[in-house]
């Protein structure tokens, strides 16, 4: 599934790249388009039998039927609307892809290819010392930069100071996110309990720092 995640991420980047490329191409096509119009305009005027001078008004419509003599003329006259239509279609299609990615970044939505529940499961399996993970949030600042924040609960060890215990597990978590998900920015909040029974197993979202978040079940004295 890691390979699928990478493929989807790569696909997003490819769409973004092609989109940017076409936007630039559209600008160039627009320039060429107006050059062709200028050229066609000059050509039509040199073929006129009438003599244009500064006093006669210039009131003919460009692209009128009387100008169409050959197929080349027809293409020359109609190249404007044809090219414009193609450019608009390309622009809307590829700019739409850029807009979609931009909106996802701005709303800091969870990337579609990453499942938070899956991360939680993976992490608990990889580091059994963690009793619980809650308040897990994933942000996307841009397609290359992810940020994760979470609270984790551990049981106080009798073998080493709590400070060392927290540092070791924090390092393991940071390494996990770097290796498995390419996430460089990790914000961690450790929470320590004396015994495993101090953390309510029935309340998956229980936070030891949140004193307002009390369990409604009165038969659980350790809750809240
Ligand atoms: Zn918490
Ligand atoms: Zn609770
Ligand atoms: Zn409870």
UniProtKB/TrEMBL annotation:
It comes from the Eukaryota. The chain crosses the membrane at residues 12-32, 81-99. GO terms for cellular component: membrane. GO terms for molecular function: zinc ion transmembrane transporter activity. It comes from Brachionus calyciflorus. Coiled coil: none annotated. This is Uncharacterized protein. Keywords: Membrane, Transmembrane, Transmembrane helix, Zinc. Belongs to the cation diffusion facilitator (CDF) transporter (TC 2.A.4) family. SLC30A subfamily. GO terms for biological process: detoxification of zinc ion; intracellular zinc ion homeostasis.
């Amino acid at each position: 599934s890691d390979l699928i995640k990478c493929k989807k991420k790569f696909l997003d980047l490819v769409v973004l790249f092609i989109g940017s490329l076409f936007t630039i191409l559209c600008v160039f096509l627009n320039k060429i388009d107006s050059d062709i119009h200028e050229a066609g305009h000059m050509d039509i005027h040199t073929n006129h039998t009438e003599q244009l001078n500064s006093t006669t008004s210039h009131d003919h419509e460009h692209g009128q039927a009387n100008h169409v003599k050959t197929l080349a003329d027809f293409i020359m006259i109609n190249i404007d609307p044809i090219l414009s239509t193609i450019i608009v279609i390309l622009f809307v299609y590829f700019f739409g892809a850029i807009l979609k990615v931009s909106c996802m970044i701005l709303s800091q939505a969870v990337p579609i290819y990453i499942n938070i529940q899956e991360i939680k499961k993976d992490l608990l399996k990889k580091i059994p010392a963690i009793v619980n993970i809650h308040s897990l949030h994933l942000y996307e600042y841009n397609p290359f930069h992810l940020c994760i924040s979470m609270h984790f609960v551990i049981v106080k060890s009798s073998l080493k100071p709590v400070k060392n215990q927290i540092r070791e597990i924090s390092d393991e978590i940071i390494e996990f996110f770097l290796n498995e998900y390419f996430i460089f920015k990790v914000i961690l909040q450790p929470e320590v309990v004396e015994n495993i029974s101090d953390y309510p197993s029935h309340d998956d979202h229980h936070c030891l720092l949140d004193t307002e978040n009390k369990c409604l079940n009165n038969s659980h004295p350790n809750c809240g």
